[in-house]
Design brief:
Helix content is 30%, strand content 31%. The chain is an alpha+beta fold and 118 residues long. The protein has a five-stranded antiparallel sheet with strand order 2-1-3-4-5.
Length: 118
């Protein structure tokens, strides 16, 4: 989830919605939270990855260029940290892979706790 204040950003429904999300994230810091659950016979483990992402101030031209790439499609908050939107991020505190979608540190820790990895 992408969270700005008390607002949760899902995946945008169209390009206008994506541009609106980026305008609201512009020049601000938001939270990206990813929950993990590992369930197997006889046990259940969970973890939460929370990262803080600060965006540069985005003018309309930058937003329009990014929207034209279509990278926003299917992305919570209308951006993917692994693509062209990297240039928007002035600071990241937390998990890069968690912002992408699967926090590897937490995933590996859960697998070790369940005896799947050494």
């Amino acid at each position: 989830e992408v969270i700005l204040g008390d607002e949760v950003f899902g995946k945008p429904v169209d390009a206008d919605d994506a541009a609106s999300m980026l305008r609201r994230l512009s020049g601000r810091t938001h939270t990206v939270a990813t929950a993990l659950w590992l369930v197997s016979a006889g046990q259940e483990q969970h973890a939460l990855s929370v990262s803080e992402v600060s965006f540069d101030t985005l003018d309309e031209a930058r937003i329009e260029r990014y929207i034209a790439t279509d990278e926003w499609q299917g992305k919570a908050g209308a951006y993917g940290i692994q693509g062209a939107a990297q240039e928007f991020i002035s600071h990241l505190s937390g998990s890069h892979s968690g912002v992408m979608g699967l926090p590897m540190f937490e995933t590996a820790r859960l697998l070790r706790q369940c005896g799947v990895m050494a």
